[in-house]
Write a structure and sequence with these properties.
This protein has helices at residues 65-69, 92-105, 113-126, 199-214, 260-271, 283-292, 329-341, and strands at 10-11, 36-43, 46-47, 51-54, 72-74, 77-81, 87-90, 137-147, 160-170, 178-181, 219-223, 230-234, 237-243, 246-249, 275-278, 281-282, 295-302, 306-310, 312-315, 318-321, 352-354. With 355 residues, it is an alpha+beta fold. Bound molecules: pyridoxal-5'-phosphate (PLP). InterPro entries: Aminotrans_IV (IPR001544), Aminotrans_IV_CS (IPR018300), Aminotransferase-like (IPR036038), B_amino_transII (IPR005786), BCAT-like_C (IPR043132), BCAT-like_N (IPR043131), BCAT_family (IPR033939).
Length: 355
């Protein structure tokens, strides 16, 4: 059944719910999924009718292009429940836009706004009991698209599947995060796919990150691939540096993911009269600042952990510990942002969207 107008979502409800078996106080990130998922297939040059159905495994051709050539993209978003039981999304338009930019870069079809937005809304509505109230609780939303078309010829697939799955999340204290500055490995290169939220960017990071883990570091600060002199991202997050009282973050580029958290941090910093400069920070500058004591903070910014303070970094086998601050920019920004997301502070930016 093909729907060219795409103005309807079929809902097949699960006869049971696993919600009573979930320990919401002890969730590890991304391990538990709700009762339903959204599925929308692309065939013969068009999107078929989206269906919300019970969360379950599904069959695929062993020759499906995603397994061989990695045509796979995703988004990461969160839904929050306020004290009146209303559910809110945070800047979903930004994720929708970025999803289709990623699709274009990976030679995949764009997903219609109805399928992405209405799909999210109807799915979350059906699963609203899974969104827990209270600061730190959220429902993590994972829209993604894979190439399902069969055949091992190296060419873009003719068939795709767009899906949304949902996972209850609790804010976590990630423990101490120490990072290594990349001297050899790269996350992304000019002309590559670093600005797309493509699955392959993540698999490319696993091995260098494993090596860092073995040395006792949790993450890598990625540098530009050509010279390894410019600081670009921290793990799978955008990265900010505070030197004296100025906050710095690199401009987005072909190598840097245009993070929604990153741009929200920039806007909050501007509104709250913190000095912020969007420019590349050099590795040498960071080492110098660490040596002369002007380096105050480094933190990552991304949807999953929101703000992730970094306690120290290593470069060329030398380790630099960051000071422990009472009034850090990271904490101010994290509190401000999570209060907006959870409707505990006025959203002067118009970022929150009610479901
Ligand atoms: C997803 C992602 C981010 C963070 O983006 P948000 O929109 O803030 O979640 C940063 N860097 C990379 C490489 C990412 O994949």
């Amino acid at each position: 059944m093909t729907s060219n107008t795409l103005n309807e979502i079929e809902i097949i409800k699960s006869s049971t719910s696993k919600i009573d078996s979930v320990d919401f106080q002890n969730l590890t990130f991304g391990n538990v999924f709700t009762d339903h998922m959204l599925v929308c297939d692309y065939k013969n040059g068009q999107w078929e009718k989206p269906v919300i159905k019970p969360y379950a495994p599904f069959l695929m051709e062993p020759s499906a292009k995603v397994f061989h050539y990695g045509q796979a993209i995703f988004e990461g978003m969160k839904a929050y429940k306020d004290k009146n039981d209303d559910i809110w999304l945070f800047r979903p338009d930004q994720n929708f836009e970025r999803f289709n930019k990623s699709a274009t870069r990976m030679a995949m079809p764009e997903v219609p706004e109805f399928v992405f937005m209405e799909g999210l809304k109807q799915l979350i509505n059906l699963e609203k009991d899974w969104v827990q109230k209270g600061l730190g609780n959220s429902l993590y939303l994972r829209p993604f698209m894979i190439a399902t078309g069969p055949g091992v010829i190296a060419a873009p697939s003719q068939q795709y599947r767009f899906m949304i799955i949902l996972s209850p999340a609790k804010s976590y204290y990630s423990g101490e995060v120490k990072v290594i500055i990349a001297e050899h490995f790269s996350r992304a290169a000019n002309g590559g796919i670093g600005a797309a939220k493509a699955a392959g960017n993540y698999s490319a990071q696993f091995y260098p990150t494993k090596l860092a883990n073995e040395k006792g570091f949790q993450q890598i600060i990625w540098t530009d691939d050509a010279t390894h002199t410019k600081l670009e991202e921290a793990g799978t997050m955008n990265v900010f540096f505070r030197i004296n009282d100025t906050l710095y973050t690199a401009p987005t580029s072909e190598r840097i993911l245009d993070g929604v958290t990153r741009k929200s941090v920039i806007d909050i910093a501007k509104r709250d009269n913190l000095n912020i400069e969007v420019r590349s920070v050099l590795v040498d500058e960071l080492v110098e600042a660490a040596k002369n004591g002007s380096l105050k903070e480094i933190f990552g910014a991304g949807t999953a952990a929101v703000i992730s303070p970094i306690s120290g970094f290593s470069y060329k086998e030398e380790y630099f510990e960051l000071p422990k601050l009472e009034n850090s920019f990271a904490m101010h920004i994290k509190q401000t942002l999570t209060n907006i997301q959870n409707k505990l502070a006025e959203d002067t930016f118009g970022w929150t969207v009610k479901i």
